[in-house]
Amino acid sequence: MTQTNVAGQLLTESEAQWSDLPENILTQARRLPAISHDDRRGTCSRCGAELTAARNQLPDGRWYCTACIVLGRVVSGTELLWFPQQVYPPRDLQLSWSGQLTTAQERVAQELMASFDHGRDHLLWAVTGAGKTEMLFPLLRRALSCGERVAVVSPRVDVVLELAPRLAAAFADCVPAVRYGGSGPIPVGQFLLATVHQLLRFKASFGLIVVDEVDAFPYAGDPMLERAVRRAATGSVIFLSATPSASLLRQARRKQIGMSYLPRRFHGFPLPVPQIRLVGKSVYNLRIIKHIISRVIATCARCLIFVPAVRDLDIARKLLAGQGVAASTVHAQEPLRQERVQELRDGAIQVLITTTILERGVTFADCGVVVLQADAPLFASSALVQMAGRAGRKHEHPDNPVLFVSKTYTRAMAQAVRQIKQMNRRRG
Ligand SMILES: [Zn+2]
Predict the structure, then answer these.
(1) With contact defined as beta carbons under 8 Å apart, do 422 and 416 qualify?
(2) Assigned CATH topology for domain 275-421
(3) Cα–ligand 1 centroid distance for 129 (angstroms)
């Protein structure tokens, strides 16, 4: 073991150089050409992307990969170093979590472990607020106890940040390494919590991979990330979703993967059904603020207001300020984004206006939800279901209001409302 454990990782030559790895570790690495190509076509060995001379050739004739460039450039004529997997001895890892699963959650936990024992993939389809994370604890404990390396990944960095303290608290004896962004080797031992992109750095490394929010951008529909998960896994892959894709449901129906279905929130109350508020003109006007948003603010300890674009954040914030409501804003490039989320959680602010970055994975107590311009093309039905799912997550306040405010009533809005009502009907 070195100061940076590189087992199972794929590094470029320059990354291996910077990392200052000792000679005995370097000599263990298996080397493969970073890019293989003929005159017209090629393949990137790190991400598996198909390359073409027209798109991927540099003026000096070398080839490079654009698909995985966020992790640093892979260039032809260089090599990738793959470091052998490390063996972890089996042990009886204890959970440092004292909570109790409900009967329904316990059933799901057992189903997940059965799939893991059979090396089978599994879809966990659970409504927002079903307590997915807690249901994973017995499975994660089993895999880590068996000596498997485990990765919990999400397409969203906010989800990773939300999960980090919860997993660290539950697995005090095997705290996960948390990783997102950045380049170079990942200082990881047996347990990794990261964005899906980070798996591009691993090959045949994890006996269990959990992909949270599998329907979220950018994982959904990105074959590179799907390949990264497959290649990094040596055992089961567990997919978590509140709104699974048709293709995952088809695989489950055909029994190609296992499936658990949990249409019930852990507290047993139904999901808040969005109320539609159609407005004649722009949604950014005084009437909306006065009559609609202020009602949500008056009934909830906190309120999330979703808008489709960064430029809408300030418009909404100024309108609220005009009514004496102080609100903060947050978006993907906001450097203080974690601080703002924490302020809302702590009650330092009551209203947070946000883009879709907070649509999933975050839990606030007693939180109302308003979606402005709910008819925006960016808001797919799955995103609307997720945004609505931020409300009513605690049993003290299961019925926080959810408002969709828009000029028109789109199919995505209708689908989202229908899906939520269906889930509520299936609860029994
Ligand atoms: Zn690549």
Answers:
(1) no
(2) Rossmann fold (3.40.50)
(3) 36
User: Is the bond leading into 218 cis (omega within 30 degrees of zero)?
Assistant: yes
Across the chain, which has 428 residues, the per-10-residue mean pLDDT values are 72 86 88 94 94 94 92 93 90 93 94 97 92 95 96 92 94 94 79 94 95 84 90 96 89 95 89 92 83 85 96 94 90 90 93 93 92 95 94 93 95 95 80
Q: What is this structure's pTM?
A: 0.85
Q: Is 58 left (phi over 0), alpha (psi -120 to 50) or beta?
A: beta
103-262 has CATH 3.40.50.300 classification = yes
41 alpha carbon to ligand 1 midpoint, in Å?
A: 14
Cα 45 to middle of ligand 1, angstroms: 7
What residues does CATH 3.40.50.300 cover in the chain?
103-262, 275-421
Query: What is the whole-number distance in angstroms between the Cα of residue 165 and the centre of ligand 1?
Result: 32
CA dist list (Å): 257 to 116, 120, 148, 238: 11, 6, 21, 9
Distance of CA 280 from the midpoint of ligand 1 (Å)? 48
Ligand 1 center from residue 262 Cα (angstroms): 37
